Amino acid sequence: MMVTLAFPSPHRHWRGGRGLFDGLRARWAEQRRLEHHARLEDELRGLWREACFGVGVCQYIEAAAGMTVRTPRFGAARILRGRTTFTAELLPGGEPEDLRAHAPRLAHTLGFRGLRVEQIAGRWVRVTLLETDPLADAFALRRLVTARADETVILGRAEDGVTLGHAHADAAHLAVQGQNGAGKSAFTYGLLAQVCAAPDVLVAGSDITGLVLGRAWTGTAHHDWQTTGTRDLPAHAAMLDRLVAEMDCRLDAMPPRRDKITPTTTTPLVLVVLEEFPGLLRAAQAKDKKLAERITSAVLRLVSEGRKAAFRVLMLAQRFEANAVGGGYARDQFALRLSFRVPGESLVMLHGEDARKLGPEHANSAPGIAYLSAPGHDCTRLRAPYLGDYGEFCDRIARHGRRAS
Ligand SMILES: Nc1ncnc2c1ncn2[C@@H]1O[C@H](COP(=O)(O)OP(=O)(O)OP(=O)(O)O)[C@@H](O)[C@H]1O
């Protein structure tokens, strides 16, 4: 008879031991993770307080023991799939906008590249910390065409992921500046491709480069209102005079009890594009001072009186220096202002003293990244949508551009 001795299996024994140590190791690891998390949370809490104090999102409270500073209360931090978020309670009377307005500087103090703020409930917000520039990725412009002047066109995407838009029916002229290769033309291609089909929009203007306006618009209703090139500078003055005459006609024929024209198919909103306007002025000045004066005074009339007659001016320049764009008065007429990469001084020139702190970083920003400001709105950093190459712009205008009747 063979007896098979039943020895406890060494293998099973070993596995049982490992199970015991594994359990301990897992608990230690969990303990370390919790300690690490608590340390990180404490560090973030301290940095958050310093950051809010540093940018001025705080309240000073008189107490018996002296003055204390109150900052938005840090709630709890969470790290999930490599992304750090935390909750914070806004100060009484505070809005998420107070934090968004200082997002880049708050993020830098916390050691991150950017942050997003979203409201969750009551005064509580969730802050998401971003390790990379939220505007680093290109923002493709979908095949979007508007059907009316009062529809919103996309201007760009802000750091908090919100898409910023603008309806040309709002009475604002648009100033765009940027150095060579900073993205002005790409932005303009995107903007014009969005409005080219609307039956109540006319894209007119002057373009010495002949790329934004002109050939790409052949066969459309817009083409007849566009002048291009540098060979015939008086033609630019004549086009601007023609636009002023149309504006005067509209102002003269204003219906009773009305003080502005609503765009229709018969009186479309006229988007007057002035591509590289300082270049046109310089070229005209070099040829004939009177011609330059004629161009300046026509543009001055369009920007100062055009709004009520459904005229909107989109002026593009490398630098929005007053004397390069027809004077300080002309520059003041632009409510919507967009700066692609420019030296710090140019940023201040167009957006005011508050923009000075943004200058050094913006002076090196990638093509397509811009600052936008409008009355009542702080400077917002955004990424302009990208339509594709120039051929894509030409294709879209050829496909969608409103046809000449
Ligand atoms: N929004 C954007 N997203 C991604 N890339 C962009 C964007 N805008 C511009 N670019 C890239 O930068 C290049 C230069 O842009 P663009 O021609 O618009 O500059 P610009 O300011 O008009 O320069 P210039 O004054 O020389 O005409 C484009 O060919 C494109 O490759």
From TrEMBL:
Per UniProt, the keywords (alphabetical) are:
ATP-binding, Nucleotide-binding
Q: Does the keyword ATP-binding apply?
A: yes
Where's the FtsK domain?
159-349
Record-annotated residues binding ATP? G178, Q179, N180, G181, A182, G183, K184, S185
> Could you confirm whether the keyword Ribosomal protein appears in this record?
no
Quote the InterPro entries the UniProt record gives.
FtsK_dom, P-loop_NTPase
Name recorded for this polypeptide: FtsK domain-containing protein
Species this protein is from: Actinomycetospora aurantiaca
